[in-house]
Amino acid sequence: MPAITLTISGRLYEVVCEESQADHVRHLAAQLDERAQQLLVDLGPQPEARVLLMIALTLADELGDVKTNKERAQAGLGSISQSEEILAKTVTDLADRIESIAERLERS
In terms of pTM, does the model score above 0.70? Predict the structure, then answer.
């Protein structure tokens, strides 16, 4: 297995992965680096360990939200009409948001 070098928050990390996964791992590292850079902008200079911990906590929180939403969606899929209502409301809400954004853009 080849070793690849990843850069996160200006630091180099060497990891070993399957060659077929190297591009995917680089992409994941780029996402982590983006989050690290944003945290440093938001919070100012922080120790490396704290930045990585904050990223991990943020990702864990997002994963928890995804799991909760998945459970809610699965519970709501009991009947087709229920899921159609949820979908229709979502589409309507999105259309309203798009219309609102378009109006603000026209005014500016």
Answer: no
